[in-house]
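Example complex used in Figure S2.
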Amino acid sequence: MSYRYRRSDLRTSNTVDAARFNENLNEQVANLQGLSRDQIPGGSVSETMFANEAFHDLTVAQTNTEIADPYRASSPSTGPFPSWACAPGMQYPNYSGDSVVAFTENVTTKGGLLHVEFSTWVWRNTICDRKYLSSSSSVVDRPKAFRMRLLVDGIEVDSTANVYVPWMSMQLCGQVLVPEGAVSVQVVWSMDSLATYDSGTAKDDDDFVMLFFSGSSLLLNQRRS
Amino acid sequence: MSSLPTYNAEPGTTVDAASVNNLFTGVGTATSSLDASNVRAQGVDVGQVEVNSALNAGIVTRYASQDDNTASATYASTADRVVATFTLGTAMDIRPGDVWRCYYSVRITDQNSSVTNEADLETMTKRVGAGWIFWLEWDIGSGYESIPGQEDFSTSHYSGVNDDAGNPVPHMPTNETLTSMVFPHVSVAEKVPVGTYQTHQYVGTTGLGSAFNRSMRRSRAFHYRRPVPSTTVSVAGIRIMVRGVVSLGRDPSGSGDGLLFVRDTAMYGTDPTFGGASDTITVDNKRLINIVQAEQ
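Predicted assembly (521 residues):
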């Protein structure tokens, strides 16, 4: 239905019955004051009638984010291979095992449910993986694991366990109710420190690039409450 | 607010034309801009919302599809390989501002490795492992090509990426890997024991020099927002690509950018070669899910 009020035009000499006039007019007014599904035909409300972001506010960010300075390795100090064989990832001389913020994405929300998806691929160097036997034959070392965490306003919504796989794709996903206003979304990475698990005899560990990630994208889907 | 004016003429009186005309003018003004006060609570249901029955598109979710390809095939490392081509039943339009959410997965049922080296790799202690990399390409009217944020393998992304024989090595920039999914092929680990300088060897699941040789299924998600302003892109098809065997490195020209380079030839004089026709991967049960959502 496409209802459009058609304005009548009475002439001065016309005679109108007041009771009938009121009856008809009030019926029209009542209909227009409370349109129902019967008066709004199927398919008559198109997407252009909805306000932008009426239901969903979508954000895509942090595309192809990688490890940043000061944790990003420059090049190996020694080696028989060309320097381009050294990936621009984390090296232990630049890292002591703490949690590092990969990025912070600040958004302004209208309140409601915030769906967060972070996707990336990660490479972990296995070159230090070993069962090192001390003089007493006890195992004193283990592979160095990395972890990633997804935070919304500092609260963890998803995280990995210790990851030992050399190459993998990763997706962290979570939903959280957020108030109207500023919201901060972060991804944080960490890796076992050299000091904690190394026996001290692996003299070359600190030269290795140990961790790298890229191919990332962050989706924020804010659903209005 | 579309509040309608009222007019109550007394029965038996003569209605004044000017008053009625004023009323009609008020009614016309009010109804020319209907708003929420004119629609009853829950007066609009899904049925009142326009949908495109051909696409089954809604207001927020404009497009949704799932495609499966169960065929199994084995691919050798030596070139870019097409793992699966999905011609979409209905073209997937991504308008400026729309967000494309893509989820795809594959299963590897076997890998073979030509790495047999068990020698002391002490002189190559910074050697990295190698893996397979998957990525997507789309057909938007001119054949299959790179998706924004994703590049393919070429010898021209960076200069100076040459193997031990001086030949250019195909490589992919890591900062253009939006759709990429990676699988391990061989890793490098220290040799036990010890007490002295640790040595390093290529290892897989079944031991030194072997491939991982395990079935595994992995998935990848990525998100792409069509820039505003731009044009609507109509995606007719998407295909899954794979390349092996690749390792991780950096741009030698000084930018510090990361790269993935193929290992089909020896990279350095002391390098145990692997890759090439003898390194294979078997892929089956591929799945592609597409969702396009509008910011409504």
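The first helix of chain A runs from residue 18 to 33. Chain A touches chain B through 95 residues (CB under 8 Å).
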